[in-house]
Amino acid sequence: MGINCSLGPQDVAPLVERMLPWASCPVMVQANAGLPHVEDGVTLYDIDAEEYCRAVDGMLDAGVTIVGGCCGTTPDYIAGEKALLAGRTPAPRHVRDCFVVAGPQEYTALEAGQVGVIGERINPTGKKLMKEALRTGNHDYVMSMAIEQTRRGAQILDVNAGLPEIDEKVVMCQLIDELQGVSTLPLQIDAANPAVIEAAVRRYPGKALINSTNGRRDTMDAVLPIAKHYGCAIVGLTLDEEGIPATAEGRLVVARKIVSEAERLGIPRHDVVIDCLTMAASTDQTAPRAILDGIRLVKAELPGVRTVLGVSNISFGLPFRPLVNGTFLAAAFSAGLDLAIVNPNLTRMMDVVDSWRVLSGEDESAQHYVANYADRSDAAGAPLPAKAGAAPAAAVESAPAADATPEQRIHDLVLAGRKGPVPDAVREVLAGHDVLYAINEVLIPALDEVGVRFERGTFFLPQLMASAEAAKAGFATIKEVNAASGADAGVPEKGSIVVCTVKGDIHDIGKNIVRMLLENYGYDVIDLGRDVEPQLVVDTVVEHHIELVGLSALMTGTVPAMADTIALLRDQAPWCKVVVGGAVLNPEYAKMVGADFYAKDATETARIAGEVLG
């Protein structure tokens, strides 16, 4: 694991220092010789080999294992680094020994003594509406469950698409993709079929928790190698060829077998989570004690291993199940439970979690508890307070209120990134208003709010893209209704914009996001793709008399191609304005290459388009 390119070694060093305590693998650094600048058409770098190596020396002392150089470095820099390594061995470093799972934006880590919540709602077992949603492809309902659980304090989301009448592998992978747009939480991949598990964790952009393996030889042989190969944490169920042991000691025997096999394959203990399996108290009142004692034994005899339980099974067949579930959860935490699979939307369950964190000392000075419960009524059944301190900053709104106007519903749905209900709401707006009202007074303000949140850092790219897709569904409905009415006009055309990634650069994620957002704002976007010759850009601009071009570059080595493209535009299409963006650019560098504007992100590009084209 490591960092290359991007910045000079002094700027990379603080990032590397944050990585080192989490990486049990070698850590590698190949920094640039500083940020580039242009003089007389030549790209130059400001950090010489001596200064570069001084910064590298500090990183070696901190525990970096492999060093090199990227943009701007020469053989002199590498020779200096080689001299630093002479007679040197990798510096020792302490790697944090804790349970961690991660998505592309956020991770959940549990140190010793901390507890976590896995949201259980995205699972068809015993859930009629979820079954119907998965069966009919109503993924908007699934996303709403993810949003609610994120807001209510879940730290991991369980995802299960196990219905026999659907293609579980295809649906699971679709859900993984779509969930990135509505929640930043890590995922628990919940499937019985190893082929589904492997397809899911291969696609998942992070470190997933796999649910599950067990003590059966064939299951361990099928699932544990997947967890090892893709670097996942793994849930181990305490059952084997003999079934579920009746005693705590029997559960420990199975747990030992799972942990031993995992360690043989190279899976560390902190990535193994043992489930002592919750059985219904209504059918066997000795079961709760065996489960709790099993947790205690696992924690005592297998140090470093975490524990998990699906709590709600304990109350099956009993009235007023939340009371039994909450009491059992408190007892399980006392026994050493680390992760609880629960419905975080239930008041009583999250009350237990929040109060336990006070009693255990995890909620330091009870700050979270006081902030969220100070105004709470003591009356039974009081509503769960909003988890202002529990949900991540990027958590987005839930479903609109039932009495909301169509305009407000559209606004809320765009912010939540839920495109499914948008068309119906847009049709309601169009029943009483014209096209311009629907666009300028409803959809555009919602997109503007998305842009504001993105700038503030409360929205991230998945939320931005999901919101853009929701707005896109609205614009598509407007065009559809307009065409059906036989109207010749109505949807305004704001003008055409050319976008591309410059010659030599094959990265296009940022450019694609810009295109999608500009299209939603009503611009006709001509996307020339990536690695585009300067003359093709100019020819397209001249042919269509384009007034604004957007150029993207991610690699420092391709920025000169950006300057060449702009120079050619100035010569052959002097009327055209140019906005540039990309990871390696900044306002100063944009000025050096001759651009008219610098856009730090897609929303800034949309504002510039409005300034140039209206």
Protein architecture, described:
The protein has 614 residues and is of the alpha/beta class. The protein folds into 4 domains: 2-85, no CATH class; 110-360, Dihydropteroate synthase-like (TIM Barrel, Alpha-Beta Barrel); 406-484, Methyltransferase, Methionine Synthase (B12-binding Domains), Chain A, domain 1 (Orthogonal Bundle); 496-613, 3-Layer(aba) Sandwich (Rossmann fold). 46% of the residues lie in helices and 14% in strands. The strands form 5 sheets. Strands 8-9-10-11-12-13-14-15 form an 8-stranded parallel barrel, surrounded by 6 helices. Strands 17-16-18-19-20 form a 5-stranded parallel beta sheet, with helices on both faces. Strand 11 (209-214), helix 8 (217-230) and strand 12 (233-237) form a beta-alpha-beta unit. Helix 2 (49-62) packs parallel to helix 3 (75-85) and helix 17 (461-484) packs parallel to helix 18 (509-520).
Work out the number of β strands: 20
Please report the first level of CATH classification, the CATH class of the largest domain. Alpha Beta
Return the average pLDDT rounded to an integer: 90
Shape: globular
Helical segment count: 22
| Parts with pLDDT < 50 across at least 5 consecutive residues | 384-396
Number of self-contained structural domains: 4
N-end to C-end Cα span: 45 Å
By CATH, the architecture of the largest domain is named Alpha-Beta Barrel
Lateral strand order in the biggest sheet: 8-9-10-11-12-13-14-15
* CATH-derived topology of the largest domain: TIM Barrel
Helix content: 40-55%
CATH H-level superfamily of the largest domain: Dihydropteroate synthase-like
Please compute the radius of gyration using only Cα atoms. Answer: 28 Å
Largest sheet, if any?
A: 8 strands, parallel, barrel
Structural class given helices, strands, pairing? alpha/beta
Beta-strand percentage range: 5-15%
